[in-house]
């Protein structure tokens, strides 16, 4: 799945994986599993993470390969958060050839930057329970107070407009080139990521030639 921050990739990936009865394979989950499990790759990754550095592609690629050969992924999988750049996509192609697998489709969630800014900058998180309200879509009954536990609501640093726009710039530079890469391979399907969660899911399934 491809799409900018705030496009709803995580939500849709979870739903689509369930609809298709295949595991969602995300780099975040893979990293946590390897680090908590104390694997050799996890220990290598932790060294970089503890320094605040990006984990090198070769370690990420190796973790993904190890995940794709696990039994639950042998009948299919949905990738979320990988590949993040063309270099990783090229390595993924080699891994798939080695495993005698191929991608069926690459789903791009299309949403314009102003919509992303509105979605993310309006979030207000609770310091106590972590619940996220939204100033437009799910405003609290009392401004600044969480409906769930009466805790204090605040705006996270990565939900501030300047941070969001920077993340969008990074996406355009590093990840957006994957759109052209997969379009050239004839795998790209693009859907509009606005509307309800259910509407976006229906579009994704239709674009992949599936139905729920």
Summarize the structure.
The protein is mainly alpha-helical and 212 residues long. The chain has helices at residues 9-20, 27-37, 40-51, 57-68, 86-98, 113-121, 161-175, 177-184, 197-207, and strands spanning 24-26, 78-80, 106-110, 123-126, 132-134, 153-154, 188-192. It has nine helices and seven strands, in the order αβαααβαβαβββααβα.
Poorly predicted regions are none
| Overall shape | globular
Structural class: mainly alpha
Terminal CA distance reads 18 Å
In which range does the helix fraction lie? Answer: 40-55%
The beta-strand count equals 7
Compute the gyration radius: what is it? 18 Å
Q: Helix-strand pattern, N to C? A: HEHHHEHEHEEEHHEH
Mean pLDDT: 92
* Widest beta sheet: strand line-up: 5-4-6
How many helices? The count is: 9
- Strand content of the residues, in percent? 5-15%
Task: Report on the biggest sheet.
Answer: 3 strands, antiparallel
